[in-house]
Amino acid sequence: MECLEWINDELKQVHDNKLFRYLTELQCGQSPEVTIGGKKYLLLASNSYLGLSVDPRVIQAAGEALEKYGTGSGGSRLVSGSSDLHRQLEEKIASFKNTESAILFSSGYLANIGTISSMVGPDDFVYSDELNHASIIDGCRLSKARLRVYRHLDLDELDSLLSKDHQSRKKLVVTDTVFSMDGDLVELQELTELCEKHNAMLMVDEAHATGVLGERGSGATEHFRVEDKVPIVMGTLSKAVGSLGGYIAGSSELIDYIRNRVRSYIFDTSLPASSLAASIKSIEIIETEKESRDHLWKMISKFKIGLTELGYNVIPSDSAIIPILTGNPEPTLQLADDLRKEGVFTPAVRPPSVAPGKCRIRTSLMSSHTEQHIEKALSAFEKVR
Ligand SMILES: Cc1ncc(COP(=O)(O)O)c(C=O)c1O
């Protein structure tokens, strides 16, 4: 259609810049070995950090809920889409995150955009780490609050920005705890003190910390022992929990406020029972099976040491995300392609997911990876070096 011809110009530009995105179809679940186009590959790119999306116990729980409740939830939470499983999962999350209460969203993306934009408005200030996830950035924009982006993990800069702004306005500081593309970790103890000093609300996104950090796997708030000092804790059920959905955990008043004010909660169909039951079972497993987390950390350490010995430019990280900096799109695509030929699937990450010049191979590990998988991965990296 003539009115859409401009799209071809846009697409040509994306192609010319080697930024065109394509899908790779997996013909199986998120196991260490996956099938793509009928061939087996070692998967180094999943956020299912504890392998729970294919755990038989989780699958069984989801299957039983599917039998009992059917496929879809049939409505938004405030109309007809609220079940006993929604309540049970919210209670489970609150106890897991050690907060008074919790509320579910259909995704982490919706939790972030809806919550941020309802906590601050045009007269307020929002402070955001420059490497925060897109859903946080979009939430900040949607809020229309005055946006202050501070350098990655630079709490001194954040301190000085907080000092300068009008004292009587609401201030919201929002940050990933583990950053999705670099895999590094915010100094949460220091950050809570800073927010207290400036009477700023702190919201943390635990998407990549949940299941991976903390004795009980509850995330960075547990790891830094600041569970009672972070008023707004966001997380997702789509990564280590191996299911689908997002949540906010906090005080009862905060959760009541969200239930009454947040549009992405109010006007969205609720999660289906199979996802809820899977999440409940997964969190139960995360809390009780520390061995799985310990094994994951062993694999992370082995892989990082191996890559560094091979001379790769590994970005220092504190999580199951192990990024290898490659710079521009072309060498990144080449490396991903070479690795694929050696039987390893780990895609190239390019702008807009990362800044120009910061392309990378973002590898991520799962507790289901064995020593042999890591050795196989390292030998592929050695061959294509
Ligand atoms: C840091 C972070 N926050 C939020 C999200 C969004 O979560 P979901 O995938 O559940 O929408 C993601 C997912 O990629 C993420 O990495």
Q: What's the order of the H and E elements?
A: HEEHHEHEHEHEHEHEEHHHHEHEEEH
Oligomerization state? single chain
Rg, alpha carbons: 21 Å
Low-confidence stretches: none
Number of domains: 2
Structure classification: alpha/beta
Q: What is the C-level CATH assignment of the largest domain? A: Alpha Beta
| Ligand list | pyridoxal-5'-phosphate
Overall geometry: globular
What level of helicity do the residues show?
Answer: 40-55%
- The CATH architecture assignment of the largest domain turns out to be 3-Layer(aba) Sandwich
The CATH topology of the largest domain is what? Aspartate Aminotransferase, domain 2
What is the arithmetic mean of pLDDT?
Answer: 97
If strands are numbered along the chain, what order do they take across the biggest sheet?
3-9-8-7-6-4-5
Strand residue percentage:
15-25%
| Tally of individual helices | 14
**Distance linking N and C termini:** 46 Å
CATH superfamily of the largest domain: Type I PLP-dependent aspartate aminotransferase-like (Major domain)
Question: What's the main sheet like?
Answer: 7 strands, mixed
User: How many β-strands, per DSSP?
Assistant: 13
